[in-house]
Design the sequence.
């Protein structure tokens, strides 16, 4: 069986890692008897690559609230054991962007939205549901909250809960505080996120071992 088959299906790629010799790092989805797991992998043979891969996986546990598998520090899943594949891709990309020397901590459930000059906050309502609120005047508040909620739904495959547009939920019905805090940052400008993904997809290829020595 080939190495590529063993790795599973590739779902995301960082073609040039800015923090470690511009190597390519990819995220793979693997099927197991206990559901899908995700593998962080690089073909690079450069010294220190394994440590870099394990750092990215470790960062994913903090930024996205994921967990590594016992004795397999490159493999991850969410504690709820539901894939949340699109959200996992975002966690992987953010972990690869993170400066290894920067503090590694989960993002808060509130953020200053520069577009509206409001602080937008998330509060957990139970059963995987989060409610969005914003400070400031009522004018245009509901519209901005609805737009950010839409960004969360696109980035994390979350679901709308009611017609008010201020509550979103994960299909698993479980809390994901770290994950939703991370997604909130990008949900403020989701169009820019998808432009970034399109540009990366147009130029990204995972180099074989011979090209990364």
Sequence:
């Amino acid at each position: 069986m080939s190495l590529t088959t063993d790795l599973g299906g590739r779902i995301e790629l960082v073609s040039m890692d800015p923090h470690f010799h511009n190597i390519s790092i990819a995220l793979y989805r693997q099927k197991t008897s206990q559901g899908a797991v995700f593998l962080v992998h690089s073909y690079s043979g450069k010294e220190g690559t394994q440590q870099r891969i394990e750092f990215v996986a470790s960062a994913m546990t903090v930024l996205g609230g994921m967990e590594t598998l016992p004795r397999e520090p490159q493999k991850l899943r969410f504690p709820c054991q539901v894939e949340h594949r699109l959200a996992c891709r975002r966690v992987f990309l953010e972990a690869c962007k993170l400066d290894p020397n920067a503090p590694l901590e989960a993002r808060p459930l509130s953020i200053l939205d520069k577009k509206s000059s409001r602080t937008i906050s998330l509060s957990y309502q139970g059963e995987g549901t989060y409610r969005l609120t914003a400070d400031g005047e009522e004018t245009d508040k509901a519209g901005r909250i609805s737009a950010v909620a839409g960004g969360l739904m696109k980035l994390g495959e979350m679901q709308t809960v009611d017609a008010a547009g201020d509550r979103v939920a994960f299909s698993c019905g479980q809390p994901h505080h770290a994950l939703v805090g991370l997604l909130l940052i990008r949900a403020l400008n989701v169009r820019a996120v998808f432009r970034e993904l399109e540009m990366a997809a147009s130029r990204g290829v995972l180099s074989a071992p011979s090209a990364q020595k």
Summary: The longest strand covers residues 118-126. The chain is about 35% helix and 25% strand. The two ends are 23 Å apart (CA to CA). Residues 3-105 form one domain.
